[in-house]
Design brief:
The chain has one domain. The longest helix is centred in the middle third of the chain and has 40 residues, at 214-253. Helix content is 79%, strand content 0%. The protein is built from 16 helices and no strands.
Length: 394
């Protein structure tokens, strides 16, 4: 007797599993963002505590940041700190906390924000070195990495003197802060801020409960705040990268021959989603190396990443009562937005970083000493020299 084919048992579809994972990741993301805001509150309160116990020299909080009153020292500090932590988001969040504590004025913090914009570009420059064994790929990768560097360096070279001469960035941001405050109407007690303060108070009481007090308490809370900030942002980036990995490459590829402004928008959205401009720009480097994306199409996406990364500082300002915290966050947004608008609307300006990047990439393929000299010169030696020289002069 002929038997029919054996049918495999029908397994129930795992409907909802993928959706459940997404929900869990989003819940984890919200928890991380809350932890990030608690970390900002903790850093701010720690700096105030250090001033109150006289650790900063007679209670003068400004002495904690002695030297950054010189704008060039502040710029160098912003570059160096970002290079060390490999995250402009951590740098800008820390600056927001310091300004929110009253230990640093908006005017003195502006150069540090600009320095963070330069320091963050080292990540994609290091990524490009992975293609060094293949000359043609390396030339394209190194050009894609350094085009972002040159754009940010160019903007700092223009906007820092303008800020020093006119206070344009700080004044504009201050006006916006005032306008936003006036539009709020009646005073509103944010449940988010109440929750943040409650968790911070619990954390502080826990530290005090083990016998830590005075100067040691301020230092301990400051260290905890910095570590928690770095940890939360690192986990946010990692979590969102896994969540968005497949979608990111497809979104970037769809912008190849589209309008440059669409590329800017994609860069903004991706960076907001993963909370890291370094991930956005680093994804472009291998795509350019493989010839999948042209350099002129990659630049708008990188410009969008510059705007997207400002969201971190804006989030950090939510944990602060001092309006100056929002002002310095808006400085970051205004600075990057001006750069994008100018670069996208003035074609000759857009060509400058592209030409410089291609020229440096050609030299780097002929001699790798150009790579070493460029990386250490721009991101290490120049900021260090600037910091020591201008700090001494101050």
């Amino acid at each position: 007797m002929t038997t029919g084919p054996t049918l495999a048992p029908v397994r129930p579809p795992t409907v909802g599993t993928a959706a459940g994972n997404v929900v869990l990741r989003l819940a984890y993301l919200l928890l991380l963002l809350f932890g990030f805001l608690v970390a900002i509150e903790t850093m701010s309160k720690a700096i105030k505590a250090l001033g109150d116990v006289g650790m900063l020299g007679g209670g003068d909080k400004e002495e904690l940041f002695a030297g950054v009153s010189n704008p060039f020292a502040g710029l160098a500090l912003g570059v160096l700190f970002t290079v060390l932590v490999q995250s402009s988001s951590t740098t800008t969040a820390t600056i927001v906390a310091v300004v929110g504590s009253g230990a640093l004025s908006v005017q003195h913090a502006v150069p540090m924000i600009l320095g963070a914009n330069v320091g963050t570009t080292i990540t994609n420059t290091l990524v490009s070195i992975g293609h060094v064994r293949h000359t043609r790929d390396f030339r394209r990768a190194f050009a894609a990495a350094t085009v972002h560097d040159f754009f940010n360096l160019m903007m700092v070279a223009v906007m820092l003197p303008v800020e020093l001469a006119t206070g344009f960035l700080s004044r504009s941001a201050g006006w916006l802060t005032g306008a936003l405050g006036e539009s709020g109407g009646a005073e509103y007690k944010s449940p988010l801020k109440t929750s943040i303060k409650a968790v911070h108070n619990w954390l502080q009481s826990t530290v005090e409960g083990v016998g830590v007090e005075g100067k040691a308490l301020g230092v301990t809370l400051l260290v905890l705040g910095i570590l928690l900030t770095f940890l939360c942002l690192h986990q946010v980036t990692r979590n969102m990268r896994r969540l968005m990995a497949g979608r990111i490459e497809g979104a970037i590829n769809r912008t190849l021959e589209s309008s440059g402004w669409i590329g800017v928008l994609v860069g903004v959205l991706i960076t907001v989603a993963v909370q890291s401009s370094s991930i956005t720009t680093s994804l472009l480097v291998p795509m350019c190396a493989a010839g999948v994306m042209r350099l002129r199409n990659a630049l708008p996406v990188m410009l969008g990443a510059n705007i997207g990364t400002t969201v971190t500082a804006m989030l950090a300002s939510l944990a602060q009562d001092n309006p100056d915290a929002l002002t310095i966050a808006l400085v970051h947004l205004i600075f990057n937005s001006i750069g994008v608008v100018v670069c996208m609307t003035v074609a000759p300006v857009r060509r400058i970083p592209i030409l410089l990047a291609r020229g440096l990439a050609r030299r780097a393929t002929r001699s790798k000493l150009w790579v070493v000299g460029y990386v250490f010169g721009v991101f290490v030696i120049t900021p260090l020299v600037g910091w020591f020289v201008w700090r001494s002069a101050g």
